[in-house]
Amino acid sequence: MSPNRLIGPALALVLTAAVGYGIYRSANDARSKSSASGRVTLRGLVGSEKTDFLADPRVVAALGKHGITLQVDKSGSREMASRPDLKDYDFAFPAGAPAAIKLQQVTGAKHAFTPFFSPMAIASWMPIASVLEANGIVRKNGNTYYIVDLHKLFDLINKGTRWRDLPQNAAYAIGKGVLVSTTDVRKSNSGAMYLALASYVFNGDNVVQSEEDVRKVLPHVAPLFLRQGFQESSSAGPFDDYLTMGMGKAPLVMVYEAQFIQHQLQAGGVQKDMVLLYPQPTVYTKHTLVALKPAADRLGDALQTDPELQSLAAAYGLRSSAGDPTQQWTSKGVVAPAQLLDVIDPPTFEILERMILSIDSTARGTPTSTAANTTARQPLHSP
Is 11 helix (H, G, I), strand (E, B) or coil? Predict the structure, then answer.
């Protein structure tokens, strides 16, 4: 066969391949554009304090306008970075900047969004607030109660003071020890923020920054957790106890302000005898969405910039940089301070982790390195 006879079929084959590749690229580009501008279903890990918000039909509809559908699983904020199935999720939405930073370190995620934040506060009751006010620990300013002497409160806890031991206490003269109930500090951000606040106080009103600081504060902060006994891993647990079991079970409970405000808004105003105490200083929890996969950037941007979603977040007690939500709350009969001035930063994730492992090892009488391998399986309480 002559070479000329071979050129024709070969050229046809090349042309066919080129046309096929062009069709493939065109179809692939079309699919990419459709994915970028069309609908996307995102799977995420979310702290329990935000699940009601994300499940709200109004929020679902607002996200739908951005072409977003969510499938979420609840998880303790501090547990997210250590989950073996983390690769199966498109985003993680913990409470607390330290937890979000750890997620970025573990996964290499580049993009994070902080659409909401919430101050830490202590849910309590009017009789309790009155007793603490009579003892110089709490003071009312306008319509807000502030814990103005955290040193004294923490000292009472660590000394094993019982409520009946407090002077001027006819309203709650019981044998129960003075304690602030928290979540499990190893798993949940709200417990870790209580530790951040307590460690600041016991470090001479300075953020704990070094191993020396950790050793200094540990004997003071550990009893705040060890005296509690069993603690739940989700911030919903202690707050549910507060709502359902009342003052006898939960006189002082560390919560996100948003939990308390959300409950009051949904209940139609402030409920009888419930009161929120704002520590001075307090610490903000930043609800930070970490985009584990690029498609989740769309969700982070929507939550951070969409006015409708920001307004709906305020209906769940969440604050944002979009504006002051307290006017919206006041119109519903719920009063909260528009601004908190005495706010500290939490320690880094690594310093928090060091303190938490030290508390756990103190509870079980084991070296910290051993405790690091067992914290997920053991209850946190004194033997």
Answer: helix
H, E, C per residue of 262-281: HHHHHHCCCCCCEEEEEECC
What is the model's pLDDT at position 16? 43
Question: Tens digits of per-residue pLDDT, 285-343?
Answer: 999 999 999 999 999 999 999 999 999 999 999 999 888 999 999 998 899 999 999 99
Angle in degrees, 0-180, between the axes of helices 297-305 and 307-314, rounded to the nearest 10:
70
Q: What dihedral angle (degrees, nearest 10) is formed by the CA atoms of 192, 190, 141, 312?
A: 140
Percent of the chain with pLDDT over 70: 83
* Gap between the terminal Cα atoms of the chain: 93
Angstrom CA distances, 376 to 217, 242, 302, stand at 23, 25, 34
The full set of domain ranges for the chain reads: 37-117+286-330, 119-284+341-371
pTM of the model: 0.82
Looking at CATH, the fold of the domain delimited by 119-284+341-371 is given as D-Maltodextrin-Binding Protein; domain 2 (3.40.190)
Element holding 207 (H helix, E strand): none
Report the SS3 class of residue 120: strand
Neighbours of 185 (CB within 10 A): 27
**CA–CA separation, 216 vs 196, rounded Å?**
14
List the CATH code of the domain at 37-117+286-330. Answer: 3.40.190.10
Preceding peptide of 325 cis, ω within 30°: no
**Phi and psi at residue 343, in whole multiples of 5°?**
-130, 130
Report pLDDT digits (tens) over 332-343: 889 999 999 999
Phi, psi of 290 (to 5 degrees): -100, 120
**Fold match between domain 37-117+286-330 and domain 119-284+341-371:** yes
Summarised one tens digit per residue, pLDDT across range 246-269 is: 898 889 999 999 999 999 998 876
* Plot region of 25 (φ>0 → left; ψ -120 to 50 → alpha; else → beta): alpha
